[in-house]
Amino acid sequence: MTTDPQNQARLLLTELANQARQYARLMRFDKPIGIWLLLWPTLWGLWIAGKGHPEPRIFLVFVIGVIVMRSAGCVINDFADRNLDGKVLRTQDRPLATGAVSPAEALVLFCALGLIAIALVLTLDPLTQSLAVIGAILTISYPFMKRLIAAPQLVLGAAFGWSIPMAFAAQTGEIPRLAWLIWLAVIVWAVIYDTIYAMVDREDDLKLGIKSTAILFGGTDVFIITLLQIILMFAFWLIGAAAHLGAWYFSATLFTGLFFIYQFLLIRHRQPDACFRAFLNNNYVGAAIFIGILLDYTFSAAV
Asked: Is residue 45 within 8 Å of residue 182, measured between CB atoms?
């Protein structure tokens, strides 16, 4: 026969498990696309900076750091948008919007993630630690930029690409021009995919006063995205030339062109569901570039 204390313990465990699920949803563990879009450029930087052989300790720190910082970014983003998400169909079931997680809980979770990030950074060299401070500022400021500037995607791109100079600093102790070239390419890429993402919510954002490049570009959005994709393809070519990469890498860049054509076909009619699929497709862009880098260093080294 089950006793009352046993029932209470079971109820407590159930409640804790439910709350943990809400925290996981707040950190977007149920939607890992953001982790991938942050992880791929990080891997590009680690492999190129390490000449195909990144230091294992640095690799682990950066991969864990990607998960932690993306989670922290989602928490602070939802905290900033807690009074707006409930008015948008796509975001109305987020934990802060529904009240499943309180603003105070979100701030505590954000601070906990921040402490983990600090602990990770302290294992790296002073230059990388200094860069991490800038990265933290970019992460925290982005959600609020959506209310202040017409192109907040530039701040998002700067934040998502900041692991590039950090990776070079951690691996080599310096930040060469190649690192900044890759960083600029990531900014262009982020403007592309986050503009596509913002096209999904454009009507709601207009009503709520949220700024985005989808609103800024207006009726020229598809044209500008296509132009930026061409610029990004050229940037990929410049990166390959500067890093002395070969056929494997440049073949991979051709696949990104195919993905961009597919994205154009999806977004040309500006249907929200199709635009969201085009946004998700950018995961394959990042993966293709990394596979090209990985294969190039693997097989070039074997020759």
From this structure: yes
